[in-house]
Amino acid sequence: MASVSEKLAANINFDAFMKAEELKKRIWFTLGALVVYRIGSFVPLPGIDPVILNDIFTRNAGGILGMFDMFAGGALGRMTIFALNIMPYISASIIMQLATSISKELGQLKKEGESGTRKINQYSRYLTVVIAMLQGYGIAAGLESMAGSGGVSAVIDPGAFFRFTTVITLVGGTMFIVWLGEQVTARGIGNGASLIITAGIIANLPMAVVQTIELGRVGQLSVFAIIGLLIMVVVIVTVIVFIERAQRRIVIQYPKRQKGNKLYGGESSHLPMKINSTGVIPPIFASSILLLPITIANFSAKSGPEWLGAVTAMLGRGQPLYLAVYSSLIIFFCFFYTAVVFNPDDTAENLKKHGGFVAGIRPGRNTAIYLDYVLTRLTVFGSIYLTLLCILPEILISKLSVPFYMGGTTLLITVTVTMDFVSQVQSHLLAHQYEGLIKKSKLRGRR
C-alpha cells in the first residue's frame, strides 16, 4: 500500500502550486537573483578594448580557457566583473574540506554543529578573497602581456593602476556572487552555487546549438555527425537520470519490545545509498583545481619560458595529459567527498543506539565494516560512471570541434541540478499540502 507521502506526491498539480504562496516567493526570489547574476556577467571591466579582447580570446579559447568561460557563463570571454565567477569559492571550499580532514581544530569545529559550520564557512570566504586576488592579478598581468592580431594590447592604459582596479573589481564580483548564492540557498530554491553555474551553462546553450548548425552548414560537420551528436546527448541524459536515481537499499530491522501488554517495534526500514552519492561535486571540484594554476599559465605561456608553453599545450582540451589529470581528480574527489558526507562508524553507532541492525550483521563495528564495504563498491562504480561521462564526450568534442556545452560535464551539472530543483519544489508542495491537512483536521476537531 502506498504511503501518505506517495499519495500526496501523486496528487500534486498546478492548483496546489498556485496556492503555495511561500513556494512562489522562493521561486521568484531565485529567478530574480539569477537575473541579477546574468546582468552582472555583461558589465565589462574598465580599461579594456572589447574588440581586441574578443580577437585574443577567440585565438586562445580552444583550450582550458574555453572551459573556464563555460563555467563563467561567457563572463570570461567578455572579461566582465564576474569573470572569475564562483570558482574561487569552490576552490576555497575544497581546501577547507581537506583541512578539516587533516587539522584536529577544524575537525572539532565541524563536530560543533551549526555554529562550527558557520565558522568554517567564514574561513572559506576569507580564503576565497585570497584565491580571487591571485587569479585576478594573473588575469590582469596576462591581459597586459597579450596582444591582438595587429600587435595591439587589449589594455588601454597598462600599469599598476590597471592591475589594482582589475583585482579589486574581480574580487568584489566574486564575493558578490558568493553572497548571492548563499541568499538563494537560504531564501530561494536549490543550492545557490550550483544554480549559478547551471544558469551560466544554460544561457550559452542556444549559442552552442547555433554554432553546431553553422559547422554543419559550412561543411565542417557532416549531417551524420550532427545526428550522432544529438543521439549522444540523449543517451547521456538518459544515463544520468537513471544512475542519479539508482539506490542500493540496505534493509534495517528493529526488534520487538514489550511495554506492559503491548508490543512495540518489529518494523523494518531501509538505508538508501546512492550509486553516485557525490552528485556534480567531483567534476566541478576537478575543473576548479585544474583551472586554478592553468589560468595564469595560459595567459603567460607566450611570454614565459618554453616549458610553460609546452605544459599549457599538453593541458589543452582533449589532450592526453589533460584527460589523465582530469580523470584522476574526478576519481579522487569521488572517494574524498563520499568519505566527508558519509561516515560508516557514525551511522553504525546511531543504528545501535536506536536498536536497529542489518540482517545477518552484528551491530556496532561489524555493521560499520559492512557499510564501508558496500559504500566502497558503490563509489568505485560511481567514479567510473562519472569519469566515463566526463571524458568520453571530451574526446569526441575535441575530434569534432563542436562547442564545449555538449560535453558530459555540462550535461551532468544541468540535469542533476534541474532534478534537485524539481525535487525541492515537490518537497515544498508536499509540506504545503500537509499543512492544509493539519488545518482541516483541527477545524473538524473543533466542531
Can you tell me about this structure?
This protein is mostly helical. It has one domain (4-446): SecY subunit domain (Preprotein translocase SecY subunit), CATH 1.10.3370.10. 73% of the residues lie in helices and 5% in strands. It contains 18 helices and 5 strands. The chain has helices at residues 4-10, 14-19, 21-40, 50-60, 64-71, 75-78, 87-102, 104-111, 114-145, 160-187, 192-217, 223-245, 281-300, 306-314, 320-341, 344-353, 365-400, 408-446; strands spanning 247-253, 256-259, 262-265, 268-274, 357-358. The strands form 2 sheets. Strands 4-1-5 form a 3-stranded antiparallel sheet. A two-stranded antiparallel ribbon has the order 2-3. Strand 2 and strand 3 (262-265) form a beta hairpin. The longest helix has 39 residues, at 408-446. The radius of gyration is 25 Å and the shape is globular. The model is unreliable at 1-11 (pLDDT under 50).
Instruction: Report the CATH topology name.
Output: Preprotein translocase SecY subunit
CATH superfamily: SecY subunit domain
Level-2 CATH architecture: Orthogonal Bundle
- Indicate the percent of residues in helices: over 70%
The proportion of residues in beta strands is 5-15%
Mean pLDDT: 78
Number of helices: 18
Report on the biggest sheet.
Answer: 3 strands, antiparallel
Look at the helices and sheets and give the structural class. Answer: mainly alpha
CA-based shape: globular
String of helices and strands: HHHHHHHHHHHHEEEEHHHHEHH
Give the number of domains: 1
Strand order in the sheet with the most strands: 4-1-5
Q: Which residues form runs of ≥5 with pLDDT under 50?
A: 1-11
Taking all Cα atoms into account, the compactness measure Rg is 25 Å
**Alpha-carbon distance between the two ends:** 31 Å
